[in-house]
Write a sequence for this structure.
């Protein structure tokens, strides 16, 4: 496929009337939603291994929704006090609201009810938004300022920032494709320009928690990424960035065997690919630096000092990218066969 063709194709797909016709207002805006989620949170937390759905009420954008909520996720259930949730809406009862056409939504929450954990969540949210700036083949997100009212604990309230993740079927529809159920993939099946962008972006944010291998206990590839079939090629769309160096969460550690002291140390873990695709990916990311920095500066919760710390981390990459050949040589020495 010719250079930049995939980006042009995906951009054209977004403009197609057939895709734009469906009313999906939730992810078309980046303003923060003020929300209240009321229900037996304590009962859910007391049964971390259960996938039972319990009745909750969600109030947002002037509307009230009777929904079902259950716990989700695996690793965070083991290490976090505040647990990720799945919101299940009643079909036909969301028409004409902010949640029109939505069914099941993943709500990403801070690992703990603390200022540091809330900052980490906003930083992970920012990573999704950064990748949105680079390619439409990325998960969209929507930030919420959520008041949690726990009816199982005398109405105890906690107010935190959270975010909603675009469902994978909506992601696939935007890309005029379908989610893949393949158990494994060959590199030749993957769109090379997009994969080069993924490789370099993961390096930018210092993320090692991803792979093109089927996770243990799962039947569908890949780890922390969704495969979308578009014609004869596959797009790997990454998610879950909380273990990245950009976020630098207290519970994040480098994978054993890499001999890294901290997740903030970058290590290229992309597969070996054509140098021209990596050069194009570098140019795409570098060209978006002003928008990326503006995004970081616009984030809520983070102090100016925290924002500058995150910008400084990204600028380590951008300074290295000024010597493109040297950085590409580094990628070539570290790439996976």
């Amino acid at each position: 496929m010719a250079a930049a063709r995939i980006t042009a194709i995906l951009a054209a797909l977004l403009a197609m009337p057939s895709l734009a016709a469906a009313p999906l207002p939730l992810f078309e805006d980046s303003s923060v939603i003020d929300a209240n989620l009321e229900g037996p949170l304590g009962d859910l937390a007391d049964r971390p291994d259960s996938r039972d759905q319990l009745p909750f009420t969600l109030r947002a954008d002037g509307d009230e929704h009777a929904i079902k909520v259950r716990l989700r996720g695996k690793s965070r259930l083991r290490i976090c006090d505040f647990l990720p949730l799945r919101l299940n809406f009643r079909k036909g009862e969301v028409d004409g609201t902010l949640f029109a056409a939505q069914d099941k939504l993943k709500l990403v929450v801070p690992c703990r009810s603390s200022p540091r954990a809330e900052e980490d969540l906003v930083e992970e949210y920012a990573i999704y938004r950064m990748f949105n700036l680079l390619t439409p083949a990325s998960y969209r997100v929507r930030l919420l300022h959520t008041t949690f009212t726990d009816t199982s604990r005398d109405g105890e309230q906690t107010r935190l920032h959270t975010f909603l993740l675009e469902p994978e079927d909506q992601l696939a529809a935007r890309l005029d494709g379908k989610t893949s159920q393949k158990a494994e993939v060959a590199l030749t099946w993957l769109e090379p320009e997009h994969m080069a962008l993924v490789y370099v972006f993961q390096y930018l944010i210092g993320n090692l928690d991803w792979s093109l291998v089927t996770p243990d206990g799962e039947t569908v590839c890949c780890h922390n990424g969704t495969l979308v079939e578009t014609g004869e090629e596959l797009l790997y769309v990454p998610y879950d960035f909380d273990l990245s160096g950009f976020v630098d969460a207290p519970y994040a550690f480098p994978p054993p065997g890499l001999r890294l002291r901290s997740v903030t140390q970058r290590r290229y873990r992309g597969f070996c690919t054509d140098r021209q695709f990596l050069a194009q990916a570098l140019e795409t990311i570098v060209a978006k630096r002003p928008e990326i920095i503006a995004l970081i500066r616009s984030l809520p919760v983070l102090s100016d000092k925290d924002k500058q710390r995150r910008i400084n981390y990204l600028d380590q990459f951008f300074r290295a990218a000024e010597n493109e050949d040297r950085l590409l040589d580094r990628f070539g020495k570290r790439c996976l066969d």
In short: The CA atoms of residues 207 and 244 lie 4 Å apart. The first strand starts at residue 33 and ends at 39. The chain has two domains: 5-12+176-334, 31-168. The beta strands are 33-39, 54-60, 63-71, 85-88, 104-108, 141-150, 156-165, 178-179, 225-230, 233-238.
